[in-house]
Write a structure and sequence with these properties.
3 helices, mainly alpha, Trp Operon Repressor, Chain A
């Protein structure tokens, strides 16, 4: 999202990182760049979950535990739209 930096050195590091990650071998696993947060230009990324399945009363959605890849993909698309509407509606204009 939007942010303020204290000086230009930090901004330069951000630009360097953005460019270097495009170089072959820079990421270690080339598949890492296939599912970037902004792969769909007008959407934010869907929420990401990890283990444990439940933490402080919050649970990983059942669909993500189902192993049903097409349902998981549909859920991620739906959540990405919802998250974008809530946090960055300007991207959907």
């Amino acid at each position: 999202g939007d942010y303020v930096l204290t000086n230009g050195a930090i901004a330069a590091a951000v630009v360097c990182d953005a460019v270097i990650r495009l170089l072959p071998g820079a990421l270690g696993d080339e598949r890492s760049s296939e599912e970037e947060s902004f792969m769909v230009p007008d959407r934010l990324e869907a929420p990401a979950y990890t283990r444990p399945v439940e933490f402080r009363g919050m649970k990983v959605p059942d669909v993500l535990l189902s192993g049903h890849h097409s349902k998981i993909r549909a859920w991620k698309e739906e959540m990405a739209v919802e998250r974008t509407r809530r946090n960055r509606p300007d991207l959907m204009e």
